[in-house]
Amino acid sequence: MIRKYWVLETMAARIYKFPKGQKKAKQKPAKAETPAPPARRYKVLLVAGQEDARDLLAEALAKSGCEVTHYRLDARYYPALLLDLFEKNRFDVVVPTNLGIPFVYLPDLVALTRKFGRGAGIVVVSGWVQDDFVAELAKLPRAAFLAVPVRLEEFTARVRELAAAGPEAKEEKPERLPRVLILLADAQGNLVAQLFLEWLAGRYRGVLDVRGTVLHSSDELLRIASVEPVHLFVVNFTPLWGPSGPFRGHMDFARHLKNRFGRPVVMLSGFEDEECKGQAIAAGVDAYFRLPMDLEKVGTAMDTLLNVK
Questions:
Q1: How far apart are the C-alpha atoms of 223 and 260, rounded to whole Å?
Q2: What are phi and psi for residue 9, nearest 5 degrees?
């Protein structure tokens, strides 16, 4: 019996080349290879106006592993909206483009990103090459300029390169611009107040966060002013629009706004009659501008009313 088992063991040793009389050693299970950590998903803010181009760039970034936030630029209000995005999010790279946007906005987009983007890299994609702008951009850290047409592989590689070189330390939230709310009373279909609002937003871009609403009803204006902290009222003195309710006219309405809310009141008017201006000043109007306006003088007056140095 003993010999039988010895013979079997000897045969097994010869077959598997084990030394005679030595049992097969127990094999240790192979260690599983440690999987490589997944590539970091960089957060990218893409600013563009042309939908097709924006979708194409966003798709390429997403395929490269980036988390993309779309932003369609509205040239009139983009500073305030961008600041909201920068306040709530920290982006590794911001991609300003002039695809569907006038080139003139690119320097502003770069400046806002540099000031409020919390260290985000910048990759400018442009169909228009302006040598002085490209030269200034080259002086900035973590910034690049890519001219259209651009290879998508080169674009995504540049974005990831600048994102990877970004600061790891947590940075403080960007300084928020003082917010100014302006309510404007104007006639239905009359664009004077809207144009005045857009001019103010452009004048104080990067200095004040100008928000405004043009209203065609005095009741609606008073309702909003009673619940929102309004900084300035603008009344367009025109026969096409007259205040409703108990007010006898524009001057009476302006007087009511001044007395009730204690905020600056500006009146826009196409009338050159000095008597109208005198009535407005007597009613408490802080500034009376006749159309067409001398924007230099208007700007000086508005700086004083909004306390802008």
A1: 12
A2: -70, -40
The answer to whether 101 and 49 have CB atoms below 8 angstroms apart is yes
The mean pLDDT value for 114-131 works out to: 89
Task: Please state the domain extents for the chain.
Answer: 43-164, 179-305
Looking at domain 43-164, its CATH class is: alpha beta
Strand-by-strand arrangement of the 121-126 sheet? 67-72, 43-48, 93-96, 121-126, 143-147
Which of the listed CATH numbers 3.40.50.880, 3.40.50.720, 3.40.50.2300, 3.90.660.20 matches domain 179-305? 3.40.50.2300
* pTM score over 0.70: no
3-state secondary structure of 301: helix
Over the range 160-189, which residues count as b (16 or more CB within 10 Å of their CB) and which as e? bebbeebeeeeeeeeeebeebbbbbbbbee
Cα-based angle 149, 143, 52 (whole degrees, multiple of 5): 35
Amino acid identity, position 304: T
pLDDT of residue 33: 56
pLDDT at position 115 is 85
Burial 77-106 (b: 16+ CB within 10 A, else e): bbbbebbebbeeebbbbbbbbbbebeeebb
